[in-house]
Amino acid sequence: MMKSLLLLAALASGTALAQTDAPVARTNWAVARAGEQVYTFFGLGPGKTYADIQRDVYVLDLRDGSWRKAGDIPVAQGRLASAALTVGGQVYLIGGYTVSAQGDEVSTPEVMRFLPDSARFETETIMPIAVDDSVALAWRDRWIVLVSGWHDKANVTDVQIYDTQTRRWLSATPFPGQPVFGHAGGLVGDTMVICDGVTADKGADGKNVFAISNACWQGTLDTQQPTQISWRPLPAHPGKPLYRAGAVGDDGRIVFAGGSGRPYNYNGIGYDKLPAEPSASVFSYDPARGLWQTHAPLPQAGMDFRGLVPFGGGSYGLFGGMRDGQRVSAGVIRFSTSP
């Protein structure tokens, strides 16, 4: 009887059959949900070399759990650290970076719009400052907000806002903390919360020295003055700081899940040459009450995420990513924050 009730509840939320692993193992997937479809873009295959960076699109239908390949992204090279989100019913694919055979990494400036009916892409706009590993947020079903991130050789504090109605970019109040990449965040109403990520200070030899950050910031947006953001620091979240966790604003709170406590290159090996391992932590922040809350851990630890997909009713999914031993996975980690 209990199993039947759980199945009926899942059917009501449209996710009962979202139990099938993806047809390919991928980490660093840019993911977005639009209606009853989850779209996955780019990502890195199990070989974890520059040659394993992909440029295809897969789609999960949450109604029946079926996966299908929807085509290839029309760019010369695959990309990592891109972001995907849905605004006004449109799916946008944002930025990322390419990796050459020699190891050169270049931030890419395109924002592409994906047309699901035809599986085509259109170049929507070009970012004023190309960023990857940025936090990308959908605001009021109109604006795309990009917070901090990496630009070619360094982090930036820029907050770039794109108005999908006027198709214009705005430069907003900069991120007040130390600039980071691989941070995570979400937005509820007009309130966003940005946490963690990796700083990059210059060492005595002029090379970047990477360190994980435990800083969290709350930013309040204003629809009447979109360029004006009121920032304030928040207490650090429960547990250790994280790199490339999944996060989303949902049901009045910002939920964070997974990630790693060690900054690493795209192959899962830390900048200190030690292997990074995944976290199973789940926590959330309620802006209305100003409270952090710790939730039950993930059923399986995971890291290297570029999004967290809400399924409804306090249920979520992390797509692909790496598991213990930096293993690239085809799995979808499903979890609930409900008691």
From TrEMBL:
It comes from the Bacteria. PANTHER family: LD33804P. Keywords: Signal. InterPro entries: Kelch-typ_b-propeller. This is Galactose oxidase. Residues 1-18 form the signal peptide. The lineage of its organism: Bacteria, Pseudomonadati, Pseudomonadota, Betaproteobacteria, Burkholderiales.
